[in-house]
Amino acid sequence: MELRIGLIGCGAIGKEHIKRLQYKLQRCRIVAVSDVLESGAKAAAELAGGVKWYMDVPSIVNDPEVDAVVVCSPGFAHKEAILCAIEAGKPVFTEKPLATTAADCREIVEAEMASGKHLVQVGFMRRYDRGYNQVKQILDSNEFGAPLIVKCTHRNPEVGTNYDTPMAVHDTAIHEIDVLHWLIDDEYVSAQVLMPKTTKYSHPALKDPQIMLLKTKSGAIIDLEVFVNCKFGYDINCEVICEEGVVHMPAPSFPSVRRAGYYATPIEQSWINRFIDSYDVELQNWVDCAKRGAVEGPTAWDGYVAAVTADALVKAQQTGAEEPIVTGVMPAFYRQ
Ligand code: NAP
Question: What is the mean pLDDT of residues 187-195?
């Protein structure tokens, strides 16, 4: 039996996921879509091959033909859709963030625990990227000893003038925030942000680049450079320095070229292309898990941890001090 999906929010990523779920992935099909904009909902219904469309969350979630829900609305609208799906007892995949405040994330965590069922997965797709998984496999083998330092870069060619200093956390570092504690199997305890000289390509509301430092419970230190006007490409790097060796995440492969006096390898330019494969793996895994009532990917707790960590980093951007990250103990429900 195919998983019958209702997809909420038919904007940029919503349309991508409709195409992916309807025409590319296996064992699932979109049966309904919804958007606050009638024309958006109708166009997405057509894109999905002429499915039902709605303009409100309860109608699509409670449609008896919908087995599971995918949320692609803007972050501020996620909470309503997720809580509605939990109340209906239906699996729900939400694009990141889980919700826009730590308090709202906590409310979702409590609602899911009260339901007694694992229903929520957050769309942190880097956990499905081949490179991160190769690094994790090596770290989990224990052959390199414990991770001591993690050095990462998240560089982007350029951003619009509406992108400001806190967005370096909420829109950019948020992916590292989720993937790195999973990668080294540790918990964050504090955050600090160092502000080097700002590039001439930035503007007064954006400090760029930034160096974000995250300390973990075991004492490891993560050093993440976020540089969103680096000019040369979308450059994601991750190197883990361990007790008995160093593990470097592979870069996406491009042909090397010899031309005009240079021997060169291109650098990816677009974030969409860099992680395009991981969206497919992520959603296929979610479909297969949802069919058997399981959640293997980032949980609501992970979404809550990301929100608390992001808040500490934004505070650290302002204070320059080392700020505590206090999530409390992970409930037993999420350790299963
Ligand atoms: P978008 O293009 O603005 O699309 C959002 C769509 O949802 C719009 O059609 C919007 O309609 C509609 N909408 C607004 N409120 C709604 C509601 N209450 N119920 C149903 N639909 C609603 O945004 P996007 O770029 O696709 O991003 C959507 C989400 O995906 C965000 O949370 C974003 O962070 C996440 N995202 C994740 C990744 C990733 O790498 N994992 C990448 C991109 C985006 P109007 O335009 O009329 O408001």
Answer: 98
Query: Ligand 1 centroid to 15 CA: how many Å?
Result: 10
Whole-angstrom distance between the N-terminal and C-terminal Cα of the chain? 27
Distance, CA of 163 to CA of 160 (rounded, Å): 6
pLDDT digits over 268-288, tens only? 999 889 999 999 999 999 999
How many CB atoms lie under 10 A from the CB of residue 75? 17
**Residue 197 CB-density burial (10 A; 0-12 exposed, 13-18 middle, 19+ buried):** exposed
Q: Is the CB of 11 under 6 A from ligand 1?
A: yes
37 lines ligand 1 (CB under 6 A): yes
Instruction: Provide the whole-model pTM.
Output: 0.96
- The residue to mutate among 18, 35, 53, 129, having the most atoms of ligand 1 within 8 angstroms of its beta carbon, is 35
Q: How far apart are CA 98 and CA 113, in angstroms?
A: 15
**pLDDT band for position 252 (cuts 50, 70, 90):** confident
